[in-house]
Amino acid sequence: MTRFDHRKYTPIVAINKPDRRWPNNVITETPEWCSVDLRDGNQALIDPMTPPQKLEMFEMLVAVGFKQIEVGFPAASQTDFDFVRKLIVEDRIPEDVTIQVLTQAREELITRSYEALRGVRKAIVHVYNSTSTVQREQVFKLSKQEIKQIAVNGAAWVKKEAEKQPDTEWQFQYSPESFTGTEIDYAVEVCNAVVDVWQPSPDKKIILNLPATVEVATPNVYADQIEWFCDHIQKRDSVVVSLHTHNDRGCGVAASELGVLAGADRVEGTLLGNGERTGNMDIVTMAMNLYSAGVDPKLDLSIMDRIINVVEKCTQLKVHPRHPYAGELVFAAFSGSHQDAINKCLALYEEGQTWEVAYLPIDPRDVGRNYQEVIRINSQSGKGGVAYVLEQEHGIKMPRWLQVDFSSVVQREAEVTEAEVSAEQIIGLFESTYLNSNQSMRLNGYQVSRTDGIDKFDATLVRNGDDLLLSGTGRGVLEAFMSALSEQLERELVIIEYNEHTLGHHDGSEAMAYVQISIDSKRVCGAGRSRDILGATLAAILNAVARA
Ligand code: KIV
Ligand code: ZN
Predict the structure, then answer these.
(1) Given 3.10.20.310, 3.30.460.10, 3.30.160.270, 1.20.1600.10, which CATH number is that of 437-547?
(2) What pLDDT digit, counting tens, does each position of 439-459 carry?
(3) Going by CA atoms, what residue is nearest to atom 1 of ligand 1?
């Protein structure tokens, strides 16, 4: 037998629940959110947050729109105690925000927690004890009855201490820690005992928070547990059923989503998922999932850059570039076919369609990104992406035939450098390839005259420092110029493709011209920029000739 032996672990056991209803549900309303960044998130950090960092995090959470914020574990940490005092004494808690503190179900810790909260307008006191089989049997070595008694005592002390501070609007919360590892009927039994102590009513609800302290099963099992709990808890209309999932199997968000389908009212989590081990449920992802399904998440996640900045600063953990909705690469498209599809859909969206953009589940602008960041160029990219970058960043609208020509230039660069090609590099390549290729030839003034419908073009061509006379005739100025140039260079020159446009919309805007010419049957492209169309076109032809 190898050391890597799956038989060492217990298979997942499904709940026998033939009447399960949650798979048919859809989330149409956002749950109540509670941020636990300052408590669970903070407890998981290598270096816990400093007081200024805690304040910055708190203020950001308020700005995002959280109405419930667990601010610490004041009975366990002096820093947390002082932070709670600071918030209260300096009157930093907005009227519509309720702070929450965590405490174990021990009398002296509960008393100390209420000391921290003295003078607060309203607060949630969150008491917990472990109820799971493993904790009961292996850690505490206590019976079910004894573990239930810890919860009941804790609830009673929480109630008693609250009565000593009647000016505060108190709400009580109980968590059977490791709920998912607790026999479901026993979890309900313990919570019912807590309900008996607190005697909630529909006007004065309590919160029962059901943690997946460690995620050990597929999210459907959690959903079954939540639905079962909601069906069997007494006074359901007086209880806020709350979820608190961790991410050990990578399904923290999925578990909370299914838990809401199963009837929960409230969800605890952290921004971007910091927390013990693999983290807490990521509220950014869950809220954005709701948003992208047309549900108002009641959080302002348009300030994504501020969120990332504060979270990174306070946790000293970098946000992964592929983190849903927040990572640097999550809206980037490198592949040519993706870029083309995005371009086409975006054009239709700009014409007023609803958001149905291939490869982009949400509009990146909603979270402060722009479309320029979407199309990124490397050796996998196609002509559409390169054209998009040039047009968005520089107003250069390459015709299709030039896009084909230029994409091979960019691709070669990407292959040689084995790296992404930035927007600056792309314009640099465009200029050096098509606009500034002609260092050796320039027109030193020109004259155009017309007689009987025939144009005559006369100019001095400076070539490698020598003045050469150009003179030619044709039907149109371009034909006359091409004929003069052909004669002087002793080459057969023919214009194959030609496009032009202005670079702006005002009188002084410059013009861009693009040509593809055949020189002794070889095709070459060039571009020119000038104050007027004719000047741009002549420059484009000379640039193409010089390239050849
Ligand atoms: O994960 C957990 O069980 C907790 C409780 C204290 C709510 O954080
Ligand atoms: Zn937790």
Answers:
(1) 3.30.160.270
(2) 778 888 899 999 999 999 999
(3) 213
